[in-house]
Design a protein that fits this description.
alpha+beta; 25% helix; five-stranded mixed β-sheet; elongated; single chain; three-stranded antiparallel β-sheet
Length: 298
């Protein structure tokens, strides 16, 4: 299955986006079949791209789609192509479902990388208090939402994307109280707050991994992607990391390899394990309960 989150403004980015209602209702497209036509798939994307990037251009996208007389078969339900941008398949009923125009679909979103945005205490590193102090400046830009890159506890092997605690602020950037003040400052100016959720991996300093690597039979033994070596002791296959080199790291305590698509210090979580999925959703709920308006899923 392919998870689908329809968020036009973030299509050019490498992540997806979820908001509070999505934790209760998920949509999936299980089969997407395009009837053979004399044009290529790129033509289909060009025909709906104006609508996806600028919702006000619905009429243009519809005209282009109508001119090609496209149809798509989605989970056995025939839907005209011009309807697709506003239609998803409800995972629970397998029926087409219209989605409303939510703020995430038309907002101007401003990304803040805390480390380099504004240093409030002169230690040479930007922080959450710095964002609070610059809330008026952000509001003056006319943006609707702020998306903040990771500020969670981390050894910083990958600039904060190697998370060792999903529900705390790294002291480098401040504290949970600083987060609360920042949220209040943004919300007081009518600006929504988006955070980065990094579900693919954790830091190897995370307590989850510390337990998982200890043995093959502990409560979190299957929380990460482990594989036996080949008979000669080499990694199980020739996969490469996006950061270069093999995507496998030897763990002598388990006598197995751990998968990492990025840095060796970022072992991949195993999403076949229901407890892992629940733990990450709990982390998302933690930040929603603390006032976040949405998450950008890295």
């Amino acid at each position: 299955e392919m998870k689908v989150f329809l968020f036009p403004l973030l299509l050019p980015l490498s992540g997806s986006f979820i908001s509070v209602p999505d934790l209760q209702s998920r949509w999936t497209i299980s089969r997407l079949q395009i009837r053979r036509q004399p044009f290529q798939t790129e033509s289909l994307f060009r025909s709906i791209k104006p609508f996806l990037l600028r919702p006000s251009n619905l009429e243009i996208a519809q005209a282009q789609c109508n001119s090609r007389k496209l149809q798509k078969q989605v989970s056995g339900v025939s839907i005209k192509a011009q309807q697709l941008p506003a239609t998803l398949i409800d995972a629970h009923t397998s029926e087409p479902r219209k989605i409303s125009r939510e703020w995430r679909e038309h907002s101007v979103i401003y990304q803040v990388y805390p480390r380099s945005f504004y240093d409030s205490n002169g230690d040479g590193v930007g922080d959450l208090k710095g964002i609070t102090l610059k809330a008026d400046y952000i509001a003056s830009l006319g943006v609707d939402a702020v998306w903040i890159s990771p500020f969670y506890r981390s050894p910083m092997a990958d600039f904060g994307y190697d998370i060792s605690n999903h529900t705390d602020v790294d002291p480098l950037f401040g504290s949970l109280s600083d987060f609360d003040e920042m949220r209040e400052a943004l919300h007081a100016r009518g600006i929504k707050l988006m955070l980065d959720l990094v579900p693919a991996h954790t830091s190897d300093a995370h307590p989850w991994f510390a337990e998982s690597r200890r043995s093959r039979d502990n409560p979190r033994a299957d929380w990460y992607v482990w594989a036996d070596p080949r008979p000669d002791g080499t990694p199980p296959n020739n996969w490469l990391s996006h950061f270069g080199g093999p995507a496998w790291r030897w763990e002598p305590r388990r006598a197995q390899y751990a998968l990492h698509h990025f840095a060796p210090q970022q072992p991949n979580l195993n999403y076949r394990c229901a407890a892992v999925r629940d733990a990450l959703l709990d982390a998302a709920r933690f930040w929603f309960a603390r006032g976040a308006d949405g998450l950008r899923v890295d």
